[in-house]
Design brief:
Layout (H helix, E strand, L loop, with lengths): L40 H7 L4 E7 L8 E11 L3 E5 L6 E5 L3 E6 L22
Antiparallel strand pairs: 1-2, 1-5, 2-3, 3-4
Length: about 130
């Protein structure tokens, strides 16, 4: 028996390790169960790539500017960031999501029903 007092399981997984790489939890595809929600802000922003938005953000403990408004086209969005480009100045902004309070759109928001989204959208486990 190896140090630690337990024998490795046949699949090579240790207790508490979850599922082998490349496999999803079986709960994600069990008939009768609701799918994992995928309506995260970054996914909604990705669906609206290229649209003009206004991003309102606050920066605590900043003496120069506590609040800032960014206006631009959505270039990309990740789990922790948003990239905007200002079409008038050509300036690009990389804004950490932690500073984003809310986003306004000048046109209709593209929002697909959040269940069963494609592979390009973030799929995080429920909290």
């Amino acid at each position: 028996m190896p140090p630690g007092g337990f024998q490795p399981s046949p699949g090579g997984l240790q207790p508490g390790q979850g599922f082998p790489p490349g496999q999803q939890s079986p709960a994600a595809k069990v008939p009768g169960m609701l799918p994992i929600e995928e309506s995260y802000i970054e996914n909604i922003l990705r669906l609206n790539k290229g649209k003009l938005v206004t991003v309102y953000s606050t920066f605590e403990n900043n003496k120069e500017w506590n609040a800032k408004i960014f206006r631009g086209l959505i270039e990309a969005a990740g789990r922790d960031h948003l990239i905007l480009s200002d079409p008038q100045t050509g300036m690009r902004y990389l804004i950490p999501m932690v500073y984003v309070d809310y986003v306004t759109f000048d046109e209709e928001i593209e929002y697909e029903y959040p269940f069963g989204a494609g592979p390009s959208l973030s799929s995080q486990p429920p909290r």
